[in-house]
Amino acid sequence: MASKTNSKKGTYGVIIALAAVIIALLVILISMESRGTKQSKPANTGTVVINSPTESKPAEPTDAVATPFITEAPTELPTEIPTEVPTEVPTPEPTEVPVTPTPSPKPRVIGGKTSANPNYEGKVLVALTFDDGPEEGTTEEMLNVLKKHNAKATFFVLGIQINKGDTYRALLKRASDEGHQIGNHSYSHKFPSQLTDEQLHDEVVRTSALIKEITGQTVTVFRVPGGNKSDRVKRVTGLPLVQWCIDPLDWMFFEGGYIRNYAKEHGISYSEAESAIIDIVLFEGVHTTLEGEPYYCPPVAYEMKHGSILLFHDIYMGSVHAVDRLLTFLEENYGNYVFLPFDEFILTENDAGPQAGVVYYNLWSTT
User: Fold this and answer.
1) CA atoms of 243 and 222, how far apart (whole Å)
2) What angle do CA 330, 336, 342 make, to 5 degrees?
3) What's the confidence (pLDDT) of residue 5?
């Protein structure tokens, strides 16, 4: 009996122990669940935390590199701070600005001497010459300009132009009848280097014959195409060679294509462009490139010294307008310029007229 009693006691002890363990586990579980349902309060760090009214989402991972903040101040700061700030900025009055400002050329003291001839006392004598005509339209207008200013000139003409027809012959005749000298500029404008001696001689003789036939003038002077003078040309032509000392490069600047390009580049009309170019050539001077080299063309109006030989071409309307502007300027500001045919020009201060085989650059400079 005692053994059974002891056995029962042992069984009851085990049961009680297991129950105690189960109860303890239940208590632990209940305690853990109670803690998970409570919110932890933020620590009192002295900083007020304001929750966002919207739910914040965790930032998504990214490979971008954060741009560092610039913490350095600028090395230079304004040293003066304006104390007064205008409250109203005045609006300038609208003004009209010309598309192409027209310069107001002012007369300069050109200097140099005047004629020693008593018939031209106090006068500045200039030989005005024209190449490559006659040309329909432009030569006629040039003759009108010369007549308007009572100026005489020398036209170095091409035989091939004369032979274009009656209109061209009539222009040549008119030039002669109005007191202008007719010079020879070859028949076809070929350079001497392109011709044999016989061909060069023929070019000169044919043109001189045409001039004599139409005008009655005997040719006394020759201008070499391109100004390509040489001892060979002197010998073959047997005529005085007339060069120049003032060249406005009108074949470049007053040619229609050049003027159109200038008008397009500056957004102006053709006539405005032509007028602007004329003013620059006559009164300001031009820096350009000639045969690949830098070249300065001085202002023509202020190069007009006594004894000068001036070169133009009567085949460009721009040249017609430039000559008109030039002669008007000289008349209004000086009043003592006289333009003479070349032979008369030479005779004013020399014992004889132009001499065969001599090259003339101005009234005195020859080679």
Assistant:
1) 9
2) 90
3) 44
Spatial distance between the Cα atoms of 334 and 103, rounded to a whole number of angstroms: 18
The closest of 315, 362, 4 to 134, measured between CA atoms, is 315
The rounded distance, in Å, linking the Cα atoms of 108 and 53 is: 86
Q: What are 5-41's pLDDT values in tens digits?
A: 444 555 566 566 676 667 766 655 555 554 444 344 3
Distance CA 61, CA 356 (A): 101
Tokens of 346: 């030479």
Cβ atoms of 231 and 358 closer than 8 Å: no
Q: How many Å apart are CA 277 and CA 142, to the nearest integer?
A: 18
Residues 6+ apart with CB under 8 A from 301: 105, 282, 283, 326, 329, 330
How far is residue 262 from each of residues 102, 248, 276, measured CA to CA in Å?
Answer: 15, 17, 9
The pTM of the full predicted model, rounded to 2 decimals, is 0.72
| Domains parsed from the chain with CATH numbers | 125-246+304-360 (3.20.20.370), 249-302 (no CATH)
Q: Could you tell me where the DSSP H helices lie in the chain?
A: 2-36, 138-148, 159-162, 166-177, 197-215, 231-237, 250-253, 256-266, 270-279, 317-333, 342-347
Pair 266, 153: CB distance under 8 Å:
no
